């Protein structure tokens, strides 16, 4: 009977993994809508989740010896968490209203952190604490088994399956409330399973799910209505690429993706200034490529010129249809060809042999890693290869009101210097936005208003804004001189590359200068830190740690140190792998989810292997040292793979593209090996037997928290993947050296 109860109870670990990963993804997506989030806000959200997950594990390790009934506490905590999950989702959608921040206004980094803290602290804390409590309950059922390792394995398996299910099925079909209330029903069932038994628990869970299903439409409608107050929602849709919203405000229809305003109808000023400069300056713009927008309004502006063929590439196929439906701008083709292509613009250029007279990038500024790929040195080189002789390339960045501030100058300077490495001729037009034009031949591009107005007159093009009353007002000698002088005086900027996305960092600083000046100052100080300081930090940590070598707690400290820095490294590995995949193959939501799921599968395999081998207690620390030694070389291996991908002949070999999930699985494999070894080492010390699982689990998550914050917010964008990989090698080398100095024997644990 006890064995049967044990076997049924172990499924709780799997369900905890499903719940944790699913709720984490749901909250990240919803907060991304609130924050118009780039990877910086994503890193903050993830770090807050990991921080309180780690605190839940550590606090749980200290609470266990004091709890009289872990089963009762866990049962009630499951029920509390079940009702907390949908409540948090509702509050996230109301957060802008509660803070009085209108739609369209950027939220500062301090507010991002505050909202993330308020929303995620309790769910992350409770789910982590539930894992620790469930480990203790299962130990009481069957103390002879290696419960922590099996629980860790099952939780990782649940997370991996949840990642695949969300990507391939759930997110594109159901609203966040449907999914979240389904999780709540699962938690209610788990709670009553522990409190009153299997049959009653499952029955109550199913009944709760049915009730929640009835409540879903009401909660969904009410929360969206409040979230988009002031707008009439015409369409909401969760595609595989994000949350899509079409909303009307008075006579204007706006298109939002993940809360970010992509375009509006009617909005002739933005479209005219984005489209006409490159077309007007080119003497014969017959073949045109538009990257970023397929709306009829943008195509209408292009077709005013004597073009023969227009190709418009848009990432999300869902937008192509939505823009056709809600942007009724009439198009007069007159025998001309217009092709709407769903897919990634960079991938399209890799696959096509077509060459164009004019190429226009209408994507938003590089506020995310995805968008940044269309502003890098590698992308500009690809553009140049697809331009005909005398071809013109155009892109748009934020503009200056009176005088450009330092942050805007850094962003503009980074793009300008990167463009100049590829194109011998570049021009900046300081209109309401800053417009870059680039071409290979010199002498074609001009910055005088008449150079753009004359072709419009010759082609009999009539515009509402981009005309003789608009251009001379902005393209004055004073404004042009002011901008060029300011850029010349601010030359210390980083070039923007695929593997060093500095423009994304500068964009974050630019918006932070308005919404969160204190955070902007902190990041600027970090950016000014010399490279050698970052490499010196692990060495300093090693020297300080060596001062405690002869203390009794050194074995435990070295073990936890290894676990923490491995958590830091693994999150950083994930960031680098995701960045590399996006940079080379383009944003494929399914594949990114597969990469994350592969990481969790690697954790499962590592934990399973440790269980299978069953290392003797006296050899645990030696095995942990060997695993740590292997992690030293993983970032170097990662660098070698990324170097191979620079060869275009290898880039499109299927083995290279489909090998990315295996890179993530290898990284996860090391973490899966480490957790059970570290837990058993601590469990071998009688004083830490009950606390071992919580301490190792918590330190792992705290290390991951620091990695998410540092790697996502700063290290990868500023230092680049090459330097970050070297830094990770040095960090893991110091962890290995500390383990080498610890005696390699431990006392056998009474409970595993």
Beta percentage is 5-15%
Strand arrangement in the largest pleated sheet: 7-6-5-8-9-11-10
Distance between the termini: 21 Å
CATH class of the largest domain: Alpha Beta
CATH topology of the largest domain: Rossmann fold
Count of DSSP H/I helices? 28
Mean pLDDT: 83
Rg estimate, integer Å? 28 Å
What gross morphology would you assign?
Answer: globular
Kindly state the number of beta strands: 11
Write the layout of secondary structure elements.
Blueprint: H1 2-9, H2 11-35, H3 39-63, H4 70-99, H5 109-141, H6 147-170, H7 176-196, H8 198-227, E1 232-239, E2 242-249, E3 252-257, E4 260-265, H9 268-281, E5 287-291, H10 296-302, E6 309-314, H11 317-326, E7 337-342, H12 345-351, E8 356-361, H13 369-372, H14 377-385, E9 387-397, H15 406-422, E10 425-430, E11 434-439, H16 449-458, H17 471-474, H18 477-488, H19 502-515, H20 517-527, H21 531-546, H22 554-585, H23 589-613, H24 620-644, H25 648-651, H26 654-657, H27 660-683, H28 692-740
Parallel strand pairs: 5-6, 5-8, 6-7, 8-9
Antiparallel strand pairs: 1-2, 2-3, 3-4, 9-11, 10-11
Characterize the structure shown.
By secondary structure, the protein is of the alpha/beta class. It folds into three domains: 1-229, Up-down Bundle (Growth Hormone, Chain: A); 264-513, Rossmann fold (3-Layer(aba) Sandwich); 529-752, Growth Hormone, Chain: A (Up-down Bundle). The chain is 66% helix and 10% strand. It contains 28 helices and eleven strands. The protein has helices at residues 2-9, 11-35, 39-63, 70-99, 109-141, 147-170, 176-196, 198-227, 268-281, 296-302, 317-326, 345-351, 369-372, 377-385, 406-422, 449-458, 471-474, 477-488, 502-515, 517-527, 531-546, 554-585, 589-613, 620-644, 648-651, 654-657, 660-683, 692-740, and strands at 232-239, 242-249, 252-257, 260-265, 287-291, 309-314, 337-342, 356-361, 387-397, 425-430, 434-439. Strands 7-6-5-8-9-11-10 form a seven-stranded mixed sheet, sandwiched between helices. A four-stranded antiparallel sheet has the order 1-2-3-4, sandwiched between helices. Strand 6 (309-314), helix 11 (317-326) and strand 7 form a beta-alpha-beta unit. Helix 2 (11-35) packs antiparallel against helix 7 (176-196). The radius of gyration is 28 Å and the shape is globular. Mean pLDDT is 83; it is low at 746-752.
